[in-house]
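ok trying again, last paste got cut off:
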Amino acid sequence: MSHEAHESAQAQRRFCILCPWFGALGHLSKDSRRVAWGGVLMVPLFWLLDGMIDVYLFGLGNAFHHGLFEMEPVELYMRLLVSVLFVVFGLYAAFMLDRAERATSALRESNAELERLKSELEYLVVADPLTGTFNRRKFHDALDRAVSNATRHDHRFALLMLDIDHFKYINDSYGHQVGDTVLRGFCGRIKGAVRSADQLFRVGGEEFCLLANVAGDEDIGPLAEKLRKVVADQTFPVVGRITTSIGIANFREGDTQESIYTRADDAMYEAKRKGRNCIVSSKD
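nice, full thing came through this time. structure:
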């Protein structure tokens, strides 16, 4: 093998050794690459500083370039060794920083996923799996807060009890799957008609409660009529038209969870006795 071929083979081997390092540097973050380049840039700074010390402090040369380029072999080896250490420690620090940044990023993603799963779990605890509305457990908590806010801060509200008329007939005639479809469609229409601050709860098989905020002397009757019509005026798949009976109980001073719920429930059963598909307020 000629001398030129031998040198070319050695250069290729050195290039193959360095390629993985340069490839790894390309995958580092911006801050990590800055740390790596910092180690490289420390080399010429070290040579300049060491040359200045040799010339101006120890008087080992007549000019600055003497201390920079004219040195004993031991001095050269020392400078080369320190230069290599700067580069190696710079690369090591860069890789460690990149590893720490990746671990931090993975931890943030894990925390975000845990928060998402926590939110989903909290929702599943208080949600009705069939209709997607809040369940009876959530209803009692929300009603307790509403009564407390109304008592302490005069935040008025009304409790509406809604019951799907002849729902047992629907289940018996068309099956429970059709009944489930009706329940989902009923909730979808009600939620589409109420205000964003109002909350709908499923408290029984076909019984639902709506907590509606009341501003001052606002009459909640028009909202109840809107809900009755949105159910009665449009057909449902398979079963056709259905209706709902609605009972209303406005919060009164001294009310408790039990008292306002009982008044809304009694008003709803009064609407049933009056022929269904109507609204009765507990004050009537």
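cool. Residues 136-281 form a domain with the Alpha-Beta Plaits fold (CATH 3.30.70.270). The chain is about 65% helix and 10% strand.
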